[in-house]
């Protein structure tokens, strides 16, 4: 699968990701490029955190493309459950039901502040760390070099993704001040 990598060794395109994104292009609207780039940043950061190349690339790709998609498919900032439903349907329709539990755990735990309940070396924990690296704009690095994170971010520019998250957070805060970040878990 590394034939999809560019000169830096980063995975820049995967059929699974592109198919799902195209299927949801209308829902993503102007956030399409920002979300696409976030997906590829998280995917590449997960591979780097894992440190074992592309052994589980397809699983990482499915989790990455669906992990925040519920924001757009269900028009909600309380998006973990809708994202899981979308991923389950996708996996079941493609005969990959045996992946559902792990993909579900990756999606449900990706905003956990503390270490996942899974094994610290698990794919779930690696994915959680990768998403935190991206959402924190590299403030949390989990052992990855600043240079590598910068290379990932240069390859997949923000394209307004973090600004959109701030807008959604503010909107959610005004409507639900007691639960402004429902996706964050301890």
Descriptors:
mainly alpha, 186 residues, 10 helices, Hypothetical protein af1432
Describe the overall structure.
This protein has 186 residues and is mainly α. It has a single domain (2-175), classed as Hypothetical protein af1432 (Orthogonal Bundle). 58% of the residues lie in helices and 0% in strands. It has ten helices and no strands. Helix 3 runs antiparallel to helix 4 and helix 6 packs antiparallel against helix 7. The mean pLDDT is 91.
CATH topology: the name is Hypothetical protein af1432
Q: How many domains would you count in the coordinates?
A: 1
Number of strands: 0
Helix content: 55-70%
Measured between the Cα atoms of the first and last residue, the distance is 35 Å
* Percent of residues in beta strands: under 5%
Q: Mean pLDDT across all residues, rounded?
A: 91
- Report the order of strands and helices: HHHHHHHHHH
Overall geometry: globular
């Amino acid at each position: 699968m590394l034939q999809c990598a560019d000169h830096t060794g980063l995975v820049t395109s995967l059929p699974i990701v592109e198919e799902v994104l195209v299927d949801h292009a209308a829902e993503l609207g102007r956030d399409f490029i920002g979300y696409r780039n976030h997906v590829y940043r998280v995917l590449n950061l997960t591979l780097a955190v894992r440190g074992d190349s592309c052994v589980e690339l397809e699983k990482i790709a499915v989790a990455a493309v669906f992990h925040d998609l519920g924001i757009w498919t269900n028009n909600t900032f309380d998006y973990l459950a809708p994202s899981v439903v979308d991923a389950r349907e996708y996996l079941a329709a493609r005969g990959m039901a045996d992946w559902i539990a792990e993909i579900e755990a990756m999606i449900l735990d990706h905003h956990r502040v503390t270490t996942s309940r899974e094994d610290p070396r698990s794919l779930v924990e690696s994915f959680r760390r990768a998403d935190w690296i991206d959402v924190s704009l590299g403030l949390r690095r989990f052992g990855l070099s600043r240079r590598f994170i910068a290379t990932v971010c240069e390859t997949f520019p923000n394209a307004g993704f973090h600004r959109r998250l701030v807008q959604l957070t503010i909107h959610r805060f005004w409507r639900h001040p007691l639960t402004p970040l429902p996706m964050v878990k301890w």
